[in-house]
Amino acid sequence: MSKSNSNNSKSKQGLNIYIAIAAILIILFAGYKFVVPQENTEKNTQTNSSLAQGTLEGKDLKIKKADITEKASFYPYEETGTYMEIIAVKAKDGSIRTALNTCQVCYDSGKGYYEQVGDTLVCQNCGNVFGVDDIEVVKGGCNPVPIMQENKSEDGDSITISGDFLAENKAYFERWKK
Prior knowledge:
Order of helices and strands: HEEEEEEEEEEEH
CATH class of the largest domain: Mainly Beta
CATH superfamily of the largest domain: Rieske [2Fe-2S] iron-sulphur domain
Structural class: alpha+beta
Number of domains: 2
Low-confidence stretches: 30-48
Number of helices: 2
Radius of gyration: 24 Å
Strand content: 25-35%
Shape: elongated
CATH architecture of the largest domain: 3-layer Sandwich
CATH topology of the largest domain: Rieske Iron-sulfur Protein
Helix content: 10-25%
Largest sheet: 4 strands, antiparallel
């Protein structure tokens, strides 16, 4: 065999080895999702935040202001017959912001809910990052559904969110797969 043919043969062998390694890596990467246990997506679980407890006044949800910090709290609400969550968090200016824990765009996917990462909320469907300070300020688009002043009342100790408002917005949660 000539030196040229020998080099071509070695070159083809080397290329075949690289292709085989690349194929194995692709298969391993694609199979990773099925081999490594995935995080629990059952209703009522949180990976980085805990569920908080509000109190009911009739069908209204009452949240103690003293319990609200820069770490988002997620308040469960089921008086509508559908499991819902309300986000309450303290913004940098000290004000308390509230929203439904569902995305205005992605809610129908069943995964359009938020988890906090640093001082942002991240949509678990599309990955949109939303600043905590933008809750109740930015409306529309891939953002949490704001609970505006007309849908809640405040006193020195608490915020009360209207049960009528929550009932009107339960459709945002009907396909939830949290």
